[in-house]
Amino acid sequence: MELSGGDILVRFLKDEGVEHIFGYPGGAVLHIYDALYKQDDVKHILVRHEQGATHAADGYARATGKPGVVLVTSGPGATNAVTGIATAYMDSIPMVVITGQVPRAVIGSDAFQEVDSVGITRPCVKHNFLVNDVSELAATLKKAFYVATTGRPGPVVVDIPKDVTDPNVKVPYTYPETVEMRSYNPVVKGHPGQIKKAVDMIVAAKRPMIYTGGGVVLGNASAELTEFVRLLGYPITQTLMGLGSYPATDQQYVGMLGMHGTYEANMAMHECDTLIAIGARFDDRVTGKIAEFCPSAKIIHIDIDPASISKTVRVDVPIVGDVSAVLTDMIGQVKAGKARPDQSALGQWWEQIEKWRGEDCLGYDRNSPLIKPQFVIEKLWEVTGGDAIVASDVGQHQMFAAQYYKFDKPNKWLNSGGLGTMGFGLPAGLGAKLAYPDQDVAVVTGEASIQMCIQELGTATQYDLPVKVINLNNRYMGMVRQWQQFFYESRYSHSYMDAIPDFVKLAESYGHVGMLIDKPEDVEGALREAFAMKDRLVFMDFITDQEENVYPMIAAGKGQHEMHLHSDNERELA
Amino acid sequence: MLRHIISLLLENESGALSRVAGLFSARGYNIESLTVAPTEDETLSRMTIVTTGSDEIIEQITKQLNKLIDVVKLVDLTEGRHIEREMMLIKVATNGSDQREELMRLADIFRGNIIDVTDASYTIELTGESEKLDAFIDTLAKMNILETVRSGVMGISRGEKGLHL
């Protein structure tokens, strides 16, 4: 079959099993858009801004585990997409971003809407390609999907000059079933010797701690992790990126760790003698001061990316491999081996952990006359039966959602953990809703974050994507204000936003339902009413306590054990 | 902070060099020198990077390089027995026959070749370990060096084992 580049691209996407792409047309991709127009297999979602396209594709990928696909034009189309590409890169999200490029003959001449997309995106992609000839297009696209979805996943950019998609230039097309790259062979199985060493260490532990991250979600290893944790009876904590891969309502779960993690999780990390890190990367928001991180622990680290191992914290037993495969091997070895965890030591360890848990570090003032943001999230969890997909923006509301929405399943919590991209939540939630129209999708945001990609409310209208927006409106950039309060003697420099729009009217102008909620007693009713409107996007503007802070908190650069639990010791934070 | 010579085979594709260079600048690693050219297999380039860093940094550098899709194979030559060479072309002003003779003697002692001659200058080609090239430059301290070009270090392991596919 002879096809033009534009038709090859669209046909390839269909053959690759891509159902939806998110994009925005422009000069360099017009041939491709014309090819899209002629078919119905690949559905195109027209966003309002290319950043929205990348976040929507990213949310789609996080919720489904399938790669998100983006199509944007050259120049500003590509540069607008960069924030979303970097967001996906930091969180290892599989994504293929197709960028148009000016025709080959004018590359390098500062042509209209020309930018070196391969150069600009190089530091924030897993890999990128410039397609030099239409005959290479299908094979290159196959490589892009292969690289994006295997090993440690990540975004891949494919830059296609306009003339490569010329409708008058046709070449033979067959779907490339296989792909071979001599320089790219991701490891799957862990080294048996290392696994044995790790298992010996794990069963001999007196004060064990399991610390898991986004790798368990990405590696689809939630079932194996749950079996492993229950088999051993050990405490488990998860990073912001790992939430949901082990049920949060389970007794063995001690909450999230890190800067705004629970007291029990951070203290158990600090006091453990054996740390089992699984698909987590010892991020600075998790470790705090490296010199004081897990001072008495032997560390085992399972990760698919060798470069994640011993990057910031030296580990004793590294295991490179797919977390699911390695956990399966470990479970087998624990079961087959004679050694069992020392139950009396484990009993004492749990006793200690329960004492820390008794501090009730997530307690807050439930009698406040103002709406507490934590209360809204607790009610959201109740009203949605703990089963909604929650897409979050970045800031205090993100931390409250992570702390108070108890995720029992993976792929339900979508947030920009690594890059911390404000504006992520709404488009990511739309991407997830597109993939799962029957599931509840809540976008937890704040009045500052939501304004960074608020134009996507139009996309929601056009494609009938009725997410529920939970806007925790405290009239501040809450996390910025919190840091200014603690570390800059309450000099609130530019963290107050004047001229906030009337979100109810704004939502209505896009054809959605708007609600304003300013009393605690109205919170639950509003949520129930909103989630009952299955086919409408409801924008809930919750007017919350203006100066509520996120606790517990470990100040940047402090040790895990140097936590501040409640507002009574705010001063000591500085 | 030890000096390491990292040798890699990478896909001979446009952009491969900038991926490596970009990695070093983005992560704040040192590059003392970097050389690259195609091999006998025209789909592959051989690159030699001289860098310094603690053991942890060097471990990260090799892991991060291995992670680049265009990097096919990599070896830290300093982990085993190896030979390193660098080439220098140096143009020196010559002032009178005494100096010309002195320069010829020095070039001879350092096993250099004079590859271009004018009434007022010699251009000398010299190959060896970087220290030898440094020593030659030091030796010329009193003379007027017009131009120095150094290739950067290349390296190869000793014995029959080598870096190939």
Characterization of the model:
The complex is a heterodimer of chains A (574) and B (165). Helices cover 36% and strands 16% of the residues of chain A. Chain A has 574 residues and is α/β, with parallel strands linked by helices. Chain A has helices spanning 5-15, 30-37, 50-64, 76-90, 117-121, 137-149, 192-203, 214-218, 222-232, 263-271, 284-287, 323-336, 343-357, 373-383, 396-404, 425-435, 457-463, 478-487, 503-509, 520-532, and strands spanning 2-4, 20-23, 43-46, 68-72, 95-101, 127-130, 155-161, 170-172, 208-212, 236-238, 253-256, 274-278, 298-303, 317-320, 389-392, 413-414, 441-446, 468-473, 513-517, 538-543. In chain A, the strands form 4 sheets. Chain A has a 6-stranded parallel sheet, with helices on both faces. A 6-stranded parallel sheet of chain A has the order 11-10-9-12-13-14, sandwiched between helices. With 165 residues, chain B is an alpha+beta fold. Chain B folds into 2 domains: 2-80, Alpha-Beta Plaits (2-Layer Sandwich); 83-154, ACT-like. Chain A, domain 2 (Alpha-Beta Plaits, 2-Layer Sandwich), CATH 3.30.70.1150. Chain B contains 4 helices and 9 strands. The longest helix of chain B is centred in the middle third of the chain and has 14 residues, at 96-109. The two termini of chain B are 31 Å apart. The model of chain B has no long low-confidence stretch (mean pLDDT 95).
List the helices and strands and how they pair.
The complex is a heterodimer of chains A (574) and B (165).
Chain A: E1 2-4, H1 5-15, E2 20-23, H2 30-37, E3 43-46, H3 50-64, E4 68-72, H4 76-90, E5 95-101, H5 117-121, E6 127-130, H6 137-149, E7 155-161, E8 170-172, H7 192-203, E9 208-212, H8 214-218, H9 222-232, E10 236-238, E11 253-256, H10 263-271, E12 274-278, H11 284-287, E13 298-303, E14 317-320, H12 323-336, H13 343-357, H14 373-383, E15 389-392, H15 396-404, E16 413-414, H16 425-435, E17 441-446, H17 457-463, E18 468-473, H18 478-487, H19 503-509, E19 513-517, H20 520-532, E20 538-543
Parallel strand pairs in A: 2-3, 2-4, 4-5, 5-7, 6-7, 9-10, 9-12, 10-11, 12-13, 13-14, 15-16, 15-17, 17-18, 18-20, 19-20
Antiparallel strand pairs in A: 1-8
Chain B: E1 2-11, H1 16-26, E2 33-38, E3 44-53, H2 55-67, E4 71-76, E5 82-93, H3 96-109, E6 113-118, E7 121-128, H4 130-139, E8 144-150, E9 154-157
Antiparallel strand pairs in B: 1-3, 1-4, 2-3, 5-7, 5-8, 5-9, 6-7
